[in-house]
Amino acid sequence: MAARQAPQGRAFSARIVAWQARHGRHDLPWQGTRDAYRIWVSEIMLQQTQVAAVIGYYARFLDRFPDVRALAAADLDHVMQSWSGLGYYSRARNLHRAAQTVMHVHGGKFPDSPEALAALPGIGRSTAAAIACFAYGRRAAILDGNVKRVLARQFGVAGYPGSGPVEARLWRLAEEQLPQKSVEGYTQGLMDLGATLCVRGVPACSRCPVADTCVALRTGRTASLPERKPARAIPHKQCVMPIIRDRSAVLLHKRAPTGIWGGLLCLPECADMAAARSFCEALGGDWAARRELAPVEHGFTHYRLTIRPLEVRLERKAGLVADTTGHWLMLGEAAAAALPAPVKKILVGIAAQSPAPAARTGPAARPRTGAKRRAG
Ligand code: SF4
């Protein structure tokens, strides 16, 4: 469903502001201050980290680096040390660089415009808007992960929020809903709503101040919005596996010790039909009488393989020619043999269709599983 304008655009923000005043968070250590440095440090720490984990780090960091001057003058190793355990260490490096930029370029005072803030290392558009809003009362829209979730559900925005067009649509919505007044209460309210009610998993819609206009709630999509990141396309490969048959025996090769199916006996693998033909004819296979079997699909972690099995009977009684790695397996033994799953499936299927082998006598009889038969 396409995103739509809020039924009551101003009412949405007004209800968020009223809810925040009553039910939102007011006692977080970085609230109740206009100090851009303190607000900035909190916003950077809160990127990718939960409030509960940040609180202790925040206090210790400010004890050690009480203002932007102290942080800019600090040794980077000491900054990293104070960050140790919070993760995403590029945040600490950027914090240090940004503090030096504030000192050297802005005379020690954080700029008050979202654009100038966003030019500092490690400060994106949403973080810049939050700092400008909380430190300077500037009217600027935020769109962090929590807010994306609230807006995607409230306005029924389909698609993955990290994709360009969906993110652009969410930014438009974020700006459209921004009230003229009470921007700080509204911004904090969106953050609080996403962190406490409109959470990942099952949202607490019965307590939500904007439930009556929520598209996801009305259409039963609170579990599917926002949409997850699409799975990466898995590459698809194909190969031909010739089944060289001499009566009830099939030719297998031992695979290289490393790589897919490493060290297992397997049907020979050819890149395509032309390669399969060369391979079969070199071994004395009757290419003209080949029989292509139904393809078999197999999924690996990183790709999908389509195997095209190709049954080819030996033309000459002489058997293999110059094939030093061939092993003969009786079809009736395939079910119990250590073979890759799709190869076993192919051979067991052939065995089920084949009449029981005649008694193996004389020179045409094949060795049992695993026995190597040198070409001759
Ligand atoms: S009604 Fe539920 S899904 Fe909709 S915004 Fe509120 S908490 Fe989120």
Q: Would you kindly provide a brief summary of this structure?
A:
With 376 residues, this protein is an alpha+beta fold. The chain has helices at 9-23, 36-46, 51-64, 68-73, 76-83, 90-105, 114-118, 125-136, 145-154, 164-177, 183-196, 215-218, 273-282, 341-353, and strands at 236-246, 249-254, 265-266, 291-292, 296-299, 304-313, 326-330.
Overview of this protein structure:
The protein folds into 2 domains: 9-218, Endonuclease III, domain 1 (Orthogonal Bundle), CATH 1.10.340; 236-364, Nucleoside Triphosphate Pyrophosphohydrolase, CATH 3.90.79. It contains 14 helices and 7 strands. It has helices spanning 9-23, 36-46, 51-64, 68-73, 76-83, 90-105, 114-118, 125-136, 145-154, 164-177, 183-196, 215-218, 273-282, 341-353; strands at residues 236-246, 249-254, 265-266, 291-292, 296-299, 304-313, 326-330. Strands 1, 2, 3, 4, 5, 6 and 7 form a 7-stranded mixed sheet that branches. Helix 1 (9-23) crosses helix 11. The chain binds iron/sulfur cluster. Residues 150, 153-154, 197-198, 203, 205, 208, 210-211, 214, 216-217, 222 line the site of iron/sulfur cluster.
